[in-house]
Design brief:
By secondary structure, the protein is an alpha/beta fold. The chain has a single domain, classed as Rossmann fold. It has helices at about 10-25, 35-50, 65-75, 100-125, 145-165, 185-190, 195-200, 210-220, and strands at about 5, 25-30, 50-55, 80-85, 125-135, 175-180, 235. A seven-stranded parallel β-sheet has the order 3-2-1-4-5-6-7, with helices on both faces.
Length: about 240
């Protein structure tokens, strides 16, 4: 049985990915920073459905915490096959009004956190494994207030391209999923129906994405049919860009 670590997976897209990969027959590690209750409940749900899962606390900003996450995974399930770099935050502000605190926190979680996990996976993932990072389709929309957030995700895309070349000899595929507007708590927070309507209007498929739209693509990238795909950014966004 293959094993997958999904960072930031106690809720939202990460939780949907964990459930989908468990249904695919993988043992999944539900990583959380603070949300132990939701992580434990998700583990119970997966186990009731016949899957294998454990919850593991780790702060991706801390390299030693990430190392411990891999240690726990190996102790529970053996060598790691798949890393899903899903943990992230989205705090929006015009560049002129972006505080030092907002900048530092966004960099630390979205970029440093992804980097810490990539660096650990580069030496500990089993040959033939898969790494899937998360970006956003906002990197091509250039919307006001998304400056710091989009900058971190652009950096993640660059890391994806480079690491795919560095790990090719180990047959480790490295790809990146860049969702468009998706109906998650993170996206919907502080938005009214009037805020959301024009976003839907600009989307050719005429709706927000669902977490399962994203989980289905991740499932594909972790499976055998994606064996010849690496170093790619998949924009899962209903055609908005």
């Amino acid at each position: 049985m293959k094993t997958a670590i999904i960072t930031g997976s106690s809720r939202g897209i990460g939780a949907a990915i964990a459930q989908r990969l468990a249904k695919d027959g993988l043992a999944v590690v539900i990583n959380y920073a603070n949300d132990k209750s939701n992580a434990d409940n998700l583990v119970k749900k997966i186990q009731l459905d016949g899957g294998k899962a454990v919850a593991a606390q780790a702060d991706v900003r801390d390299s030693q915490s990430v190392k411990a996450l891999f240690d726990v995974t190996e102790k529970e399930f053996g060598p790691v096959d798949i890393l899903i770099n899903n943990a992230g935050i989205m705090k929006l502000s015009p560049v002129a009004k972006s505080s030092d605190e907002l900048f530092t926190e966004t960099i630390d979680i979205n970029l440093r956190g992804t980097f810490n996990c990539l660096r650990e996976a580069a030496t500990r993932l089993r040959d033939g494994g898969r790494i899937i990072n998360f970006s956003t389709s906002v990197v091509g929309l250039y919307q006001p207030t998304y400056g710091v957030y989009a900058a971190t995700k652009s950096a993640v895309e660059t890391l994806t391209h480079i690491l795919a070349k560095e790990l090719g000899a180990k047959r480790i595929n490295v790809n990146c999923v860049a969702p468009g507007p998706t109906a998650t708590e993170l996206f919907l927070k502080d938005k009214t129906e009037a805020d959301i309507a024009p976003i839907i209007g600009r989307t050719p498929l005429g709706r927000l994405g669902d977490v399962n739209d994203i989980a289905n693509v991740v499932s594909f990238l972790t499976g055998p049919d994606a064996a010849w795909i690496t170093g790619q950014i998949l924009r899962v966004n209903g055609g908005i860009i």
